[in-house]
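Quick illustration, no need to memorize.
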Amino acid sequence: MKHFLYAAAVALMAAPAAQAVDAQTAMQSYLDAHFREWSGDATILAAVTAQNARTAELTAAEIDQLDKAWRAEVGTADTPTITPVLENPAADLLREKVAASGGAITEIFVMDAQGLNVAASSVTSDYWQGDEAKHQDTFGKGARAVHFSDIEFDESSQMYQAQISISLSDPDTGAVIGAMTIGVDADSLM
């Protein structure tokens, strides 16, 4: 009986680790099959490059002000900070990818070198992602860097999802210029 209880306790403790490994394997498969092929689209990279030229000299205080403005605009009719991120050719492409996924993709957004949103398929809860792992563990780690989040309830999409984030690189120089995050419905990973 002691051996049975010990084995049961070990199995229960190992279950979360096994689920985490399975989720990461599923996210890697999703990345390879559905995301990596279009993540280097010229429209996306051009939008990031253009925004990097505009935001390269921003101070931390200016970034904080932009983020506060974005947060204040969420859910309101007047959205001068949010609108340019949602209404551009790269954002149109992201919405096409979300629609084509049949519900598997919940959101996609692209960030510049500072971690500021460049384009998004829908409104995110904040403008600056530079303080989060989705930017720090991709842009901050170099070309082809990947970050897999835990499966969590997402305020922006209002569903359980995992986020797959990758660094974006200039195809000519190989220099990392930004990052992209794709939210995947948790059920689509299982």
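The mean pLDDT is 88.
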